[in-house]
Specification:
Number of strands: 5
Distance between the termini: 21 Å
Radius of gyration: 11 Å
Strand order of the largest sheet: 4-3-2-1-5
Helix content: 10-25%
Oligomer: single chain
Largest sheet: 5 strands, antiparallel
């Protein structure tokens, strides 16, 4: 997968509920649930509890961030 494909997939799903899992060090996993909000050249954002959180496309491609559409 490359960033162009990922951006087009995310653009189609703006406004949709998503679950984002971020895999960190020492097997720690952070989960965020919110709405896909905006697409930028290097990042995308979600809104969770009126707080905007950003994630990079590179992290999705490398597997450090997983996106699940709800």
């Amino acid at each position: 997968m490359n960033t162009t494909i990922l951006k087009s997939e995310l653009t189609k799903n703006i406004g949709r509920n998503v679950e984002i899992k971020v895999y960190g060090m020492r097997n720690k996993v952070n989960t965020f649930n919110g709405k896909l909000h905006k697409i930028y050249p290097n990042i995308f954002t979600i809104i969770e509890n009126n707080i905007e959180k950003s994630f990079t496309y590179a992290d999705v491609i490398t597997g450090e961030v997983k996106i699940k559409y709800e």
